[in-house]
Amino acid sequence: MSGGEKVVLRLLQQVGQALDVNTLGMQPLQLADFAHALQQPQGLVLVTGPTGSGKTVTLYSALQKLNTADINICSVEDPVEIPIAGLNQTQIHPRAGLTFQGVCVRYCARILTSS
Fold first, then answer.
1. Which of 18, 35, 88, 112 could form a disulfide with 74 if both were Cys (CB 3.0 to 4.6 A apart)?
2. Which residue range(s) make up the domain with 48?
3. Domain count across the chain
4. In Å, how far are 17, 36, 39, 103, 111 from 42, measured between CA atoms?
5. What is the pLDDT of residues 41-56, one digit of tens each?
6. CA dihedral 98, 40, 54, 13 (to 10 degrees)
7. Domain Bacterial type II secretion system protein E: where (predicted)?
């Protein structure tokens, strides 16, 4: 690449649909498996796919489903694409010292000292 200033612009579209896992277009068995995975007390759910395939809406729909008054959900994002009331969403900002690692360490320290 040649010298000079460069800019990357990412336009974030507001999600116009409700964040409901039942409206994601999954087959009934897939939806049942996804709902079962979300109900587990631990584990890992990987959401993969090409750009525009619905990964973000799927993840935010899962967060919305899990978002109840009796649990504390913390997310570390770059950027926060869909604000959800009741979630602790932190957007990283490396120049201000807010990195993924730093924010996660702070969250873990709070959990360990409050338990």
1. 88
2. 7-66
3. 2
4. 28, 12, 9, 21, 16
5. 999 999 999 988 999 9
6. -40
7. 3-103
- Exposure b/e, 52-78, CB count within 10 A at least 16 = b: eeeeebbbbbbbbbeeeeeeeeebbee
> Which pair of tokens denotes residue 91?
């957007």
Cα separation, 45 vs 59, whole angstroms: 9
Band (106; pLDDT cuts 50, 70, 90) = confident
What's the predicted TM-score (pTM) here? Answer: 0.74
Give Cα 105 distance to the centre of its chain. Answer: 18
Residue ranges in the chain assigned as alpha helix (H): 28-39, 55-66, 100-114
How many residues in the chain?
Answer: 115
Structure tokens at 113: 């000292």
